[in-house]
Write a structure and sequence with these properties.
two-stranded parallel ribbon, 482 residues, 13-stranded mixed sheet
Length: 482
Amino acid sequence: MDNTASALYSYHTFIFPFLWNDGGKVSRKEFEKCLNKQLWKPDIFGQYRNDEASVSSEYYSAYQYFNNAARAVIYTFEDNDKQSVRCFRYLTEQLKSKDHNIKYHIKKGDVEYILRINGIRLKLYNTGIGLLIYELENQDYPLIDDINKINDLGRRISRPFYNSENSTCSLCADSISISGITDIRGNKIFSQLSGAPAPSNPAKTEIARIVTFLLEDNDRKVTINKAGKKINEFFIEPIIDDRMFVACYINNKEFADLLAQRNKDGEYRYLSDAEEKSPDDRAFNISRKLYETIFVDGDGLSCHSREMLKRMLAENVYDRWIEFRDKGELSGTVHGISEYSMICISASLFSANAFLTEYIEIAMLVLAQRASLLAFERRISEVSSNKKGEKELQEQYIDFDSQYMLHEVTAQQQGIEIFNIILEKMFIKDEKADVENQIRNLFELKNFKSDRIMNGILFGLAVLGTIEIVSIIADWVKTFFC
């Protein structure tokens, strides 16, 4: 985050989890060959910044925040393939410059949101999944409604459906583009979503060009459609959703103060408004406004039950610092966490730094856990169909479990609480139990088949043994009586 900015209204981090190893057929070292080495640089911990002040402020506190096991799956410490995660940064020097002109454009109808790109990062994990990360800064749009639309429209990199009669899509931006750079062929980075003609094959997956252009070199490129893949193409696909995960810091003291107000019964307004005001009261229902923000309902409220609205907010809001006071003045912070978003509403620079350097890394670690578990589910299905690779699969899962499935990432109480909330919202415990049960069933089936074959062999040997004994007795009888 550029703390020198004259006005920062929000900071948006869009995270795209994807599968790159094509069912185990591609190694991480091979996939890295897609990356243009002139544009992507390894993000070795502590080396991105050159001046000592930046290193100490940006890296040291975050490094100290995490325990050793978490550091090993969050940062890259050496430029080799032994690392659990390989981190990269795009256009490092340009995006580090305060006066660069690289922007992220979201266009919908007559409205266009233009955000400064502060960073583009990539994390490649040894489980076969990756995270592509856009770090965007908003200095022009203060309204919560606009911030919600930026999150909702900016995260969608694929149309959820095609209408054969009308190719427009109300849920998508008309286009998402990046200005200030071109792709390796000199073309503008432009992705038309709504208004684009439907493909000839409705099942064909399409992902916005702003994603695929990043993973291309002069002689290599990625494809999102496996059919017809050529020799120098690498296959990737979304592994969790066709929308990017949203992590958003909102610098809005007025909104944070409204959330902390209490009704006559002493209940916080972000909860009380859910019952006391109509869900359709867009102007004054703070519960509705917060729900739209946390659940990224940029196109309008998707919950019209007062009881459910209150319950969802109670379950998804982390309000440890809601009444924090700085020099006697209310300056609290509210976090909202869902399956596909993590929001921080505050005017505190301390809260902003913690959110952008520590909590986002926790969210990305849990995203990597979930994406990896989903990748293992696919591998289990493939191994079950091919009837081979069980041992390799089990070994890979044991490595993943020991490296990534951490019970704790920090000794800090608030970090422990946020980590546990994100784990719960992304269903990690259930996903892990399901994968382990599938692996167990896979081996039980294999053992059952092995036992059945062995029993058949033993039965055959027994039959042959019986025949041999009968033959010996018959020979003895003939010799004795004849």
